[in-house]
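Form 7-S
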Amino acid sequence: MTEPVSTRDFLARIGLPRGDLFDVPSSDQRFPDGAQFRIEIPSTEGPSCLQAVIGEAERRGVVVHRVSQGSGVLLMTDAELRDMAGLARDARIAVSLAARPHAAWSTSAMARAPAGGHVAGAARGEEQVVHQLDDARRAAAHGFRSVLITDIGTLAAFDAMKRDGLLPPSMEAKISVLLAVANPSTARVLTSLGAGTLNLPTDLTLAQMAAIRAATGLPLDIYIESSDEFGGFLRYSELPQIIRVAAPVYLKFGLRNAPEVYPSGTHLDPVVTALSRERVRRAEIAVELIRREFPEAVMSAPGPAGSALVTPAGDVDLVPDGDSRWAGAH
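Output:
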């Protein structure tokens, strides 16, 4: 009689960890340039915020490799997209713009219910999938090469668009923290669907991070400080171990005790630009700590190759013919 196979043995058979890796092994994976970590400043909500990030980074001597935005391509004018793309190209900083809307921004009652938080980032109906993909195409037409994706179906369609030539092959799907990558199996699925980087939930342990790292070679995006709505964690003391276990990793700096600003706009400019400057200061604190406690850790140089840097606009083959929504993208 055949001996029954345990669940842990079955997981190992299909190439997944047998459980969380409580021995927290060091990752031997790296970015293409050989680095272990990069710096990301989230909630960079437009040209004024990006200018604030660039100015503060220069003043403090902080290297910023990527910024991300949460309000979405939908809520940016063509002129703002052009300005942000120009600033990013000159500074050689990668930009990831959110593909919106999602359930939390629509008439979904469930997204606002006590038990409905897990659907907040989902595309509610096919119309929202269409709008999210249109956001990706509009971003690409302006030269951006990364979008933040919150829905698994949108991710699959995004990858199909790349294969069909409707999006550039270099276009990156950055998985949002709203699409929870909380275990190795989920990480593998999203990797197979064309994800470019994976944003982990803010509260995973080192053992859980190590198990996810064992299942995918994609860069992991990890909040070192998270906003109150995502738990309000400050994990600076864990930085050396996070880098050691999760490399290659984007270190992200949200802010505890900060106001919720999504969706942003010019009415919030003084607030969001001040928050952007403080996030760079937090990154400086982190880098100093790494230099003291893990000096052998390797950070990417500014403007690393293959990091979804913004390209010149004018990819006319990516723009739907006769669609007035795309006028001004060139």
